[in-house]
Design brief:
By secondary structure, this protein is an alpha+beta fold. 28% of the residues lie in helices and 19% in strands. It has 2 domains: 4-40, no CATH class; 56-244, Zn peptidases (Aminopeptidase, 3-Layer(aba) Sandwich), CATH 3.40.630. The protein is globular.
């Protein structure tokens, strides 16, 4: 079902009415002339809305923009890495999980961790970039097109989500990138969290690393990523597993 959002005509507005409309005051016009017509079309209280936007590459560049790039890009990276690893017949048990409700306390990741109880986990998510949209590089020293970011630490003061990635996991990921000539960046994020928060404390504790894909315009319908960052994320994820994991590996928090 399609609809449009409108507002009071500019001919009839003034003062505060000219400001951005709050979410509570936005209406969606689906062409119905009454409540009954809307209900007959299938509309119910509690229905979800999303932007009707088709993703695209911007002007034949390697920059892709679309809705839900957070975290479809992470899913794409994991699926491609998993495909390559399966072809290599890696001698370890691998689980690929697309988790839910990360924005509500990373609930799905906690369930996955408790159910599988892995020896180690690597979370793949997007992260904020600097140098655009008024975000200074001194504030966020992660850039688009310069490779995935290996997370050291994150913390969200609003909900307490955060992870201090074990040093040996960080070093393993950095060394793997350097040996294989994969560009990477380092990340400390002070205003956000990931599924690593609940995975790390699931079961008896899981050694958890986080690989971050640089994304412009976080939490909008125009999330933007560089395909080189996606490919390098795949390569680093694959090499981290191929070069460092054996069937009897023990990646505890020690």
């Amino acid at each position: 079902m399609e609809g449009v959002t409108g507002g009071k005509s500019a001919h009839l507005t003034g003062g505060d009415e000219n400001k951005v409309t709050s979410m509570d005051d936005i209406t969606v016009d689906i062409g119905a002339l009454s409540r009954k017509e809307a209900e007959d079309l299938g509309v119910r209280i509690g229905d979800y809305l999303h932007y009707n936007r088709i993703g695209k590459f911007l002007n034949s560049t390697k920059i892709y923009s679309g809705k839900s790039v957070d975290n479809r890009s992470g899913c794409a990276v994991c699926c491609e890495a998993f495909r390559r690893l399966v072809e290599e017949n890696t001698n370890i048990d691998l689980y690929l999980a697309g988790t839910v409700q990360e924005e509500l306390g990373a609930r799905g990741a906690g369930v996955v961790g408790n159910r599988i109880q892995p020896d180690m986990a690597i979370v793949v998510d997007v992260t904020i970039v600097g140098g655009v949209n008024g975000i200074e590089l001194s504030q966020v020293p992660v850039e688009t097109g310069k490779g995935p970011a290996i997370k050291y630490y994150d913390w969200d003061p609003n909900d307490g989500m955060g992870i201090n990635v074990p040093k040996h996991i960080v070093r393993m990921m950095e060394k793997t990138a350097e040996v294989n000539n994969i560009p990477y960046q380092r990340e400390v994020l002070m205003h956000g969290g990931t599924d690593g928060y609940t995975l790390a404390k699931s079961g008896n504790g899981v050694a958890t690393g986080v690989l971050s894909i640089p994304q412009r315009y976080m939490h909008t319908a125009v999330g933007t990523v560089h395909t080189d960052d996606l490919e390098n994320s795949v390569c680093l994820l694959v090499k981290c597993i191929e070069d460092n994991f054996e069937s009897d590996s023990n990646y505890s928090h020690t």
